[in-house]
Amino acid sequence: MKNNLTHLYLLGITLVVCWGRNVPTSFSEAKAKVNCPSFLQNDPLVPCWTLGPNAKCYCFSRTKRLDWRRANEFCRGGGTTLLSLETYEEDMLISQHIKGTSSPELLNDYYWTSGRYSQEGNKRWEWAATEPFQPMTYTNWYPGSPSNNAPGSYAYVNYLFDNGIWFDMTNTTSILFICESIDGSMTTTERITTDGTTEATTTESITTDSPTTDSPTTDSPTTNSPITDSPTTDSPTTESPTTESPTPDSPTTDSPTTDSPTTAIVWSN
Question: Which among 81, 215, 245, 267 could bridge 129 via Cys, Cβ 3.0 to 4.6 Å?
Answer without folding.
Answer: 81
